Amino acid sequence: MDLIDYHIHPGYSLDATGSIEAFCQEALKKGLKEICFTTHFDTDPLRKKIDPFMIVDGRQVPLEEGLPKYFREVKETQRRYEEMGLLVRLGLEVDYAPHFEEQLRQTLSGIKVDFLLGSIHCLEGVAFTDRREYERCFQRKSVREMSRRYFENLAALVKSDLFDCVAHLDGYKKYGFTYYGEKIFTAHRDYIEPVLELMRADDLGIEVNTGSLRRGFRDLYPSAEILKLVRDFGVKVVALGSDAHRPEEVGYEIKRAVDSLAHLGLDLSLPATVVAERG
Hints:
Layout: E1 4-8, H1 20-29, E2 34-41, E3 53-56, E4 59-62, H2 63-82, E5 87-95, H3 101-109, E6 115-119, E7 122-123, E8 126-127, H4 134-138, H5 143-160, E9 165-166, H6 173-180, H7 192-202, E10 205-209, H8 211-214, H9 224-233, E11 237-241, H10 254-263, H11 271-278
Parallel strand pairs: 1-2, 2-5, 5-6, 6-9, 9-10, 10-11
Antiparallel strand pairs: 3-4, 7-8
Helix pairs in contact: 5-7
């Protein structure tokens, strides 16, 4: 199977470094055949002073100012690198919460990209994926309450029909393990199955994300236990992603993710299908 990486943050994202060119060069060096840039697109009105920005030419600018340059650069890169054997896709990782769904729907209706990766990074406007905020987010809730709320939001994300794929399905464990301990690894058990039913019914797939391995976890995002449920419920895996925020992270342990899917009896539905449908 050709190696792909559909979750890459170039230096346009506030928390990333490295040029589009540098990421592409690294992908070629590592033998990847297809990549997708997924710059953060965060528009939660509760976080309007923190998130809705990009880095362009060393300056922090509003998303609406930065997107055109990001789009142009990726499209120019697509043409050059296709001749070298690397397919480059244009995407966004979009933060979602129900309280701003309609605003997000209007915003995304005017944006044309190859791939929209839907993510939940926050609960009630506080980021559980940020080392500066996760304690403030988690201290409000028991692990069960946090998980219940997360999967309620995830169900709403699926129903929104805005996205091509769900990112890091159990991404709450990134700092959840630090805060809650081992309980975080079973937090999904009472809440995930109705969401997987929705995903199967709506034909919305997930990514398998290797970013957890860089943090020292033994399991991917999502865990093997969740991936078995994904298989049993007939939900598709439509992308593999490293969640790279630096060029050297591109393609990180993607081969291991492929092997894990094979071991669990899961097939990868190539994202080219999703891209073709969006196009």
